[in-house]
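User: Can you predict the 3D structure for this chain?
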Amino acid sequence: MSQQSKVSCLCLTRDRPKYLHRAIRCFQRQTWNNKELVIVYDFDDKRTIKLLEHFKNQPNIKCVKNGREGVTVGRLRNMSVNHATGEYVMQWDDDDFYENNRITFMMNSIKGTDKPAVVLNSWYCVFVNKKTVRRSNPYTYEGSIIAKRETLRKYKYPNCTRKKEGGGEIGEDTIMLRKLISRKLLKVVSKPTIYYYFIHGTNTCSPQHFRSMFRASRTIPGSARVYRKLMERIKRDDDIFSKLMSK
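Assistant: Here is the predicted structure, written as structure tokens:
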């Protein structure tokens, strides 16, 4: 790829500006140069609006206001896709942490296949209350997706946030991903070290779900040290956040 394709990172957020700031910092450190961050926020989210004031003049950060109450996560995801200008789009959740080469690795993966979408089959789970990092069980992880923008415009997210299935619930991103899987449009790759999925106590899934996730995950060498080093990096970002919000 002689000229870098543009990648739009799509971030939905609601009243957790410290997490959002971490996600913005991860985006800024990405080694892939041709990129934009599309942030969808709610019109009445005062703390997020205050944070975004510090980034409104950055040309590769686009802030999109949702002006209505009660909009489903699926509809907000479709909104973010519609505002993206990149050839490729990537989910960029506001409460996770990404290594600097996440976009580069996923772009190299998708350009090496004839599939229009790629996800990771594992990632690192950060269990904050246990102060440890573990490798997830094998799965098609929706939150890690990169896809051609036109693919997600065609196979839209459903107009829901969560949907009951069996004895539990599934998210809007799971439903969308199943469309891609059923049509053989998805490639699965392995690189867990580029994505840190945080279990921090305010996630949308139930505590039972995360207990099951912990039991299914595997320990990694030096997990306590990995956790400590990761939190040191995050603290540096959080110190910057505190200074921004005090202005």
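The two ends are 43 Å apart (CA to CA). The mean pLDDT is 94.
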